[in-house]
Design brief:
158 residues
Length: 158
Amino acid sequence: MIARFLQRLAGAVGIVIAQAAGRDLYTGSELVRYYSRLTVIGGLAAIVGPVLGGRLAAVTDWRGLFLFLAGAGAVILGAVLFVFRETLPHHKRSTGGIEAEPGRDFRRLLSDRALSAPPYSSSASPTPRCSPTSVALPTYCRASTEALAAGLLVRVRC
C-alpha cells in the first residue's frame, strides 16, 4: 500500500513540476503552446504506453517488464540530474521552504478561490473559471490540486 502511494505521488509530482517549469519559462501565447504540447504528450503516452506494454509482454515476462521500466526510470533520473536545470530565475526564488511557514502557506493555498471554486459557473452557458491569458488549460488547476494532495506548494494564477 505504501509503494502504491509513492507511485501515485511520483505520478502527480511529474506533471506538476512540468507545468511549474512552463510557468517559470514562458508567458502568454508561448505558455499556451507549452501547455498544449504537455497535453498532447500526455495523450500520446496514454495511447503508446499500453501498446508498448503489450508488445513487451508478448516477448518477456513480468521480470523483463520490470527491467524495462527500471531502465526507463534510470534514464529519466539521469536526465533530471545531469541535463535539466532549475527553471525559476534566481531573483524570483524564496528561501525557507515548506518548513519555514507551512501553516501560512497552506492557509493561503486553501483560501485561493481558483482551487476551491467549481470548474464552471452555474450560469446557462458555462464559462471556465481560469482566463485563457492566465492559464492555458483547466488541467493546470486540477494538477495544482494534485500538488496540494501531494503536499507540494505550487503557485496558481487563475
